[in-house]
Amino acid sequence: MHQSRAFLLAWRSRSAFRSLSLSAVSRDGGLATPKVNYEEKYAGKLQRKAQEQGKSVEQLRAELKEQERQRRLQKLKEESSKNKGMSETPRRTNASPDQSSVASTSAAAPTRKDSSPVKPLSSIFNLDKILQKPHTPEQISVLWRAYHESRSGGSGRGYLCASLPVETYQKMLDVASKYPRFVIPVPRENAQVEEGLKEPAYEFYLMEWGFHGPPPEPSKNGDLFAPSKPSTNPQTTTILFTPLQEYKLRTSFATPYLVVTHYPDLAKTHGLVLLRGELTPSAASLPNGRANDDSGRYMLSQQDAQLLAIHVQRFYLWNEGSDERAALLKAFHETPAEFKWEELLKHTDFSA
User: Fold this and answer.
1) What CA–CA distance (Å, rounded) separates 161 from 147?
2) For helices 302-316 and 166-178, what crossing angle results, to 10°?
3) How far is CA 53 from CA 58, 258, 326, in A?
4) Are the C-beta atoms of residues 257 and 243 closer than 8 Å to each other?
5) Are 215 and 264 in contact (CB under 8 A)?
6) 208 three-state secondary structure
7) What is the rounded CA–CA span in Å between residue 43 and residue 37?
8) Is 281 exposed, middle or buried (0-12, 13-18, 19+ CB in 10 A)?
9) Please, what's the largest Cα pairwise distance for the chain?
10) What angle do CA 69, 70, 71 make, to 5 degrees?
């Protein structure tokens, strides 16, 4: 990530904080209205399409925005692969039959029939083999982790992975449906701040939840002609993490540096939700980058990506002792004038 692009703030620089408000991360980005109001111009078409799909205009607009971001993200990845001169081949190991069954072959990867931009879990994880014989949630978690650790030549860099109990995920989902946006500060040790100021500086990231409907429940018998049943799984969700300054400048065209996807496909069958995080490759990444340093290969470091993912649970999983964090999330949406940036920094500083 280039220093010049960072949105760095010393937490005692109150004038900088006063220049920010909830409007900076409102649905329209808080920027000046363009000369042509495209929302009004195409309002009729959006309304008709939304009615045809049985959705609200707001839901349709959110889906279109998500699809556009995913297309831009995929394009950036393709450009990065071209710069490297060759695609990365997963390292082959003498894995057990269960471990080797995790990845789905690209030739057999299914395509989605709905409008969701999310890559289906079955294109990553071979659900048919998982369901062929009993697997405990712990075994599936181990396979999920082993698969991602084998990526990037065996280093696992560029990915995050975890598994959540469905009860934990449902609690976060309930909160996210009410409060789908928030900002998370990430400390920057080497940032240039005001002369004489020794307090730490931060780069703020806008996090946005996206909701994509429940995935179908995986079938154990694999009968292609079996009638489809309404899914009882929770919704699939994504969380986009974008530097706040980047978002303010480019709004819907801003590139997220990290995309976290929650896959609840196995929620009803195994009580498990799988988490996958993908770091956006840097367009300037080189094929001969340093083996132990991912700072030039991705827009975000592995450590910062893990920090952002941790804060999702800290602010969206409301348990005993999380009252202050819950109050901050509520204030950000409901009473932005009462939102205190100093309090946010206190709850995101692990060194305190």
Assistant:
1) 9
2) 80
3) 12, 29, 35
4) yes
5) yes
6) strand
7) 10
8) buried
9) 71
10) 90
Of the candidates 181, 179, 177, the residue with the CA atom closest to the CA atom of residue 29:
181
Q: How confident is the model at residue 86 (pLDDT cuts 50, 70, 90)?
A: very low
Would you say 281 and 76 are in contact if contact means Cβ atoms under 8 Å apart? yes
Q: What pTM, to 2 d.p., does this model score?
A: 0.70
Task: Please name which of 171, 173, 180, 169 lies closest in space to residue 266, comparing C-alpha atoms.
Answer: 169
Higher pLDDT, 50 or 114: 50
CA angle in degrees (0–180, nearest 5) for 166-169-175: 145
Distance between start and end Cα atoms, the chain: 26
Name the average pLDDT for the chain. 75
Give Cβ neighbours of residue 188 (< 8 Å, ≥ 6 apart). 6, 8, 200, 201, 202, 203
With vertex at residue 83, the alpha carbon angle to CA 77 and CA 89, rounded to the nearest 5 degrees, is: 70
Can you tell me whether residue 264 is helix, strand or coil? coil
**285-330 tens-digit pLDDT:** 544 444 344 556 899 999 999 999 999 999 999 987 789 999 999 9
Distances in whole angstroms, Cα of residue 235 to Cα of each of 239, 253, 278, 279: 13, 25, 19, 22
CB 184 within 8 A of CB 311: yes
N residues, the chain: 352
